[in-house]
Description:
Layout: E1 2-3, E2 8-9, H1 15-23, H2 47-55, H3 72-78, H4 94-105
Antiparallel strand pairs: 1-2
Helix pairs in contact: 1-4
Amino acid sequence: VYATGVVAFSAAPTFGDVFRLLDADSTHCTACHDDSSPAAGLNLNTEAEAYANLLAGGASAMVIPGDAEGSILYQRVVDADRPMPPSMYEMMPDSDVEMIAAWINAGASE
């Protein structure tokens, strides 16, 4: 069982689970981070591109496997001062944020 602050998962979430959250009807990440003009150069258009781009860059990557709190992706979805997605879109529910944290902390496997 993988447990985070409020949610327990019977198995570590996969990146497929996380990508479905990021893409959620283009109301979360892919509304701005698509292939037409990816905000901050971060293209999350397809599952393969998203995984490669989130983990690219080693220690400066958006995702540091095993360290949700040290990962920029997690920091941005929990930061009330600089929220992602921006306020014009619906914020991620806590359960979605917890799934992202569980995926990262379990090693961020594909």
